[in-house]
Amino acid sequence: MLLPDDLIIKNNCSKEMIKLHKKTKGSVIATKKVDKKTVSRWGILSIKNKKNRYFEIKDVVEKPSIRKAPSNFAIIGRYILPSNIFGEIKKLKPGQGKEIHITDAIRNLIKKDNKFYGSIFTGKYLDCGTLSGYINSGIQIFRGKK
To answer: Which domains does the chain have, with CATH numbers?
Structure first.
């Protein structure tokens, strides 16, 4: 699953994720470290067994406060998910912001011992989730084509 407001350029994040999926046989979520002051903008990962470019995910928290954030590894909109995620999504009730959050379905699967891994990608992240981010991303992409 790819979220359209998160762009990753200069390196193919999906290839990194597929490689990790083949290695671990688990689900994979793209991640990057963010400034601790901004964790409330993101889904944040609780980590265990950190390796060089990846780690096992212990839990996920949707837009936590700075005090409640288990790390500063943010979910970036790239996922390799198991097919049973759809059954979990159907069971969900609206959460924060009265929305259904994929992080809630992922948390439920982690609690059922499904393996999820965070892939620390090496590409450049562009946030298109705000008007200014969208405009700045277009400018960066355009400048890179010259």
So the answer is: 6-144 (3.90.550.10)
